[in-house]
Amino acid sequence: MAKHDVKTLIYSSTCATYGEPEKMPITEETQQVPINPYGKAKKMAEDIILDFSKTSDMAIMILRYFNVIGSDPNGNLGEAPRPELREQGRISGACFDAARGIIPGLKVC
């Protein structure tokens, strides 16, 4: 990244880093105590990125998804699909739309 002068890093993480929190809702202050290998690996990667950010001028953002894919189209799993949220609803849907050329691109702020 240094070779290519990358100045921004956005890391896709997961709510699995929180494990089984003692209280809800989960906030940025909720302790991260992952309970499975997936959550532990994501937490380790977050820790490495945060350590790196202390010695770098790179802008860092960590996104922790709770349901990145969303419900199935028939509404049998997950919450009932809401077509009116297609454009802003799930980041995965927007990524797929951008990759397929349905929308011109994707901006994460």
UniProtKB/TrEMBL annotation:
Pfam families: Epimerase. Residues 1-74 form the NAD-dependent epimerase/dehydratase domain. Transmembrane segments: none annotated. InterPro entries: Epimerase_deHydtase (IPR001509), NAD(P)-bd_dom_sf (IPR036291). Belongs to the NAD(P)-dependent epimerase/dehydratase family. This is NAD-dependent epimerase/dehydratase domain-containing protein. It comes from Vigna mungo (Black gram).
